[in-house]
Amino acid sequence: LKFIYQKCYNIFNNHPHLDFEMESQTNLSANQEQQGKALLLFMVVIGYFVTFLVSSNSGEVYSFPRLALGIAYGVIYLILGVFDNEIFRRFSDNTRNALYFPIQLALVFGIGWTLGPGGHWLIGLPLAGIAVNKLQPRWRWLVYVALIAVIILPIGLRYSTWEAALMNGFIISTAILFVVVFSQFRLNEQKAREKAEELAGQLEAVNRQ
Q: What is the largest CA-CA distance in the chain?
């Protein structure tokens, strides 16, 4: 009843501040999600560009089925990354994450195995930031370890030596750490901003009573 009274009070007294602040929080989260998806698209494009550049410098020639399969993996990866909410809307958050990350990691492995390890690590790198936003800390480490594994396995098993694979794993681990720290900083900043707006709204509501 108090909530209904407060809503009516805001409407009749021309004070839609609480609704506006809630809408601002929603818009902020939506904007950050859109920025993340735009970054995902950018990293996929750059990753394929680096992959083809490395393959051309090494003189490797792709057959059409191999090229088509490698690109198909990337298209599926990108569609799932951009439209994950729509694709998994019928599932709970836990089930959605349990489906999303293994599928995406498998696709990153498929890209590296099919087209070579030139830039598939760039394609997989956004998954580290997505894990920060979607998963509890204890589950994020599984994604980080799996991401390193799917990136270095094509190198060690098919394209080069395990020494080269482990060296790439060290470099990729550093890149993942940078993404994780930056994503956690953004997440903390978002939570602090939302908390401040919530407290300001509560204080304003108390002052008007």
A: 75
Output b/e per residue, 37-61; b: 16+ Cβ within 10 A. beebeebbeebbebbbeebeeeeee
| Least confident segment among 43-47, 64-68, 152-156, 197-201 | 197-201
Q: What is the pLDDT of residues 163-175, one digit of tens each?
A: 999 999 999 999 9
d(CA 57, CA 117): 13
Candidates 37, 41, 43; CA nearest to 119 is 43
Q: Is the pTM of this model over 0.85?
A: no
